[in-house]
Amino acid sequence: MRSKKDITNWGKYPVAEANEFVFDSETNLKKIIESSPSSPFIARGAGRCYGDASLGENIVSTLHYTNILEFDPVRGEIFCEAGVTLEELIEVILPKGYFLPVTPGTKFITVGGAVASDIHGKNHHKEGSFSAHIIYMEIYAADGKIYRASRTENVDLFEATCGGMGLTGIILRVKFGLKKVESAYIKQITARARNLDEIFDLFEEHRSCTYSMSWIDCFQKGSKLGRSIMYAGEHATLEDLDTKKKKNPLYVPAKRKLTVPFNLPSITLNPLSIRAFNFLYYNKSPKNRHVGLVDYDTFFYPLDAILHWNRMYGKSGFVQYQFVLPLDVSKKGLTEILTRINKRNMGSFLAVLKLFGKQDDLISFPMEGYTLALDFAVRKGLFEFLDELDKVVMDLGGRIYLSKDARMKSDFFWKSYPKINQFAETIRKYNPSSTFASEQSARLQLTNHYHKK
Amino acid sequence: MKCVLILGASSDIAKAAARQYARKGATIFLAGRNEEALTGFSKDLSIRHNVIAKFVRFDADDVKSHASFYKGISPVPDVVICAFGYLGDQAVAQNNWDECNRIIQANYTGAVSILNLVANDMETRKSGVIIGVSSVAGDRGRQSNYIYGSAKAGFTSYLSGLRNRLFKSGVHVVTVKPGFVDTKMTNGLKLPAPLTAQPDQVASKMINAADKKKNEIYVLWMWRWVMLIIKSVPEGVFKKLKL
């Protein structure tokens, strides 16, 4: 009757042959988990992590667990089930004058995923990651009980669940605070940086700006190494809007979406085409610093306008390599890594640089310093190359984002996350027999299932 | 504004229909057994669409409770969607009367019991729409699921008789035959993509049918032809097929 299907996350690598289960109530979830006491489960939302974090033999999809349970427009708080997507939330909260406290570069993720990855956005340096805004959450743990966890209640569970990749149990419901906004628009500053020194200066200069990130051209070398464009922004107030927009400040007319209808041949993105793209992209940006008004979709989610953009990398998929380096060694490390990428002609089509603020949570990815995210098509030699980069990152005291990871070696992981022992201990407490485990958790030796053949 | 009563509201088709009616501002009664899921869903509808949405306990098998259940629905519904059903397991049902009876109850007896009450009420009011979610499986009995199929065949016949009776009172009856639908119920089954509809598609087709007073609809046009062929195979040949 039930047949396994091939499931992949956003990077299309790796592919897992999995049973997929859905639930719409706690009762149903309990039945599913108890039906198979020996084999582990892992929760999965919209499948927008890149690698194997939500892959395993038995996947519990939250996509039928999608109710918004409370919305308090006075206090600006929302309480919802884990499968609700950020896109759906925006539809509800924006017309009432609220926006998400933290959002990644796509709105097609679920709230459960946002917690499990402890996502960050362009405002991390000012407002922290998603977990900073959680009031409380409810988690189904391996003992079949539901725990309420917050920064004051079941604190260990709360800390290990934020960024914990679903290893403490199934995140059921989350209550979190929203951000009051006057409009659906962002006042955006665009500025060019000719090299790494300039972009670092721009980030420092815009530290007080709520949002900032930059796109970086990995193919530039020498004095142009780190050539990039910075985008900074603030939520536009009513005064920032023209009369036409003022009439309906919280509404953005729907735009047409493009789609990549099928996997493109893997040759599509080659050093030449990426160079050409980067050249055009940089040169079409305003030469001088420019301030303009853009809608929230354009500012936060430019890639959401192209559905299935992951198909550009072809059938074998891609890996996103996102690392962070401590602030004092960021420039040194980035120079080294960008130089290595250049030498190997490994240039990434999308490369995003961002300055994080301080964060000192248990297993969350961000720390004060620069983070760079690079996309590489899966091909021969890539993993060896990434192992080399891991070494550079490790020597400088940096680490890799688990949501993007599909290949990191476990000893690097254990060395690079300073509170890993405490995290592993909490997992053992709430998930003692690996009822919840993923291919990633097995690869990283956090749980004891799925020994890779 | 319209008031819509959905019987068996936790199915994916029912939920999609509830969302679409809520988007139009209708008051929604979600009737079913899964209190936890439906209470949550009623909150969700109220928050997302700014409408009144309520959970009402309803058990299709418990026919004795139907009269008092229906009396409790206020305001009276303009649209009633009968969306509950139970696919069951044909192989088990052949040997086990409880499973067999459960299939018949959930797909036929229970539906007839509650819709009798709805029909009488709408007939007196001289207005209303009844939407029955039947199945292509009721078009012809096949060895792989004829117990479910025969219950749905009975339901389809019931709906056509009801349509005939209520026509003169201005009450309209829609029969929906969805075919394969990508739902919780079919998750994990390999379904042929061109013949498989999304719950949202089923919901918008059936709401459209209710608005336009269509009588019997298939959701995907292919199904009309597929079933036409299946229905026109002579019985002498049909009985030898593995279907």
From TrEMBL, chain B:
Keywords: Oxidoreductase. GO terms for cellular component: membrane. GO terms for molecular function: oxidoreductase activity. Pfam families: adh_short. InterPro entries: NAD(P)-bd_dom_sf (IPR036291), SDR_fam (IPR002347). Belongs to the short-chain dehydrogenases/reductases (SDR) family. This is Short-chain dehydrogenase. It comes from Pseudochryseolinea flava.
